[in-house]
Amino acid sequence: MKRLLNFCENVLTYAAVSSVFIIMLLTTADAMGRYLFNRPITGAFDITTNYLIVASVFLGMTAAYRNGGFIRVTFLADHLPRLLKLIVNHLVQLVSMLYCAFLVFASFKHAIRALAIGTKLSAIQMIPQGPAYFLVPVGLSLASLMMLIDLAKVRKGKSTLFQQESPTT
Length: 169
Prior knowledge:
By secondary structure, the chain is mainly α. The chain has helices at 2-36, 44-58, 61-66, 82-117, 130-133, 135-151.
């Protein structure tokens, strides 16, 4: 199971990194076309904002979670007694996982609705916008699964959500 999760995480991470690279190339080519040749790339902005940025953010979410990139405010929890801190950490992990799972459900429902409506990109009418919405629940579902697996690790202090300690004051 762990190997499958790592494989899925790697695939999503490479897809996210690739989308950032494509954003860089497409934006550079669009700017050069616009300012040097007075011919911008039609639909470059739509493809970047509706597909590539969504892919880079939500497909890269698992890598951000795995590397401790989620923002935490710990100034209160750091000063709690050990048992209370453990309870708070369990609650934070559980609420984070449930919230992420709720977002999976809501974003999947939204993606189905967008696909059914048949919305197209504004500049390129032949490209549907609906498939881009499915990138959100894909990234969120793997992040939710990772949080669920890490729930058992909270007690040992090995949860990825609490990986990096806050600086001491």
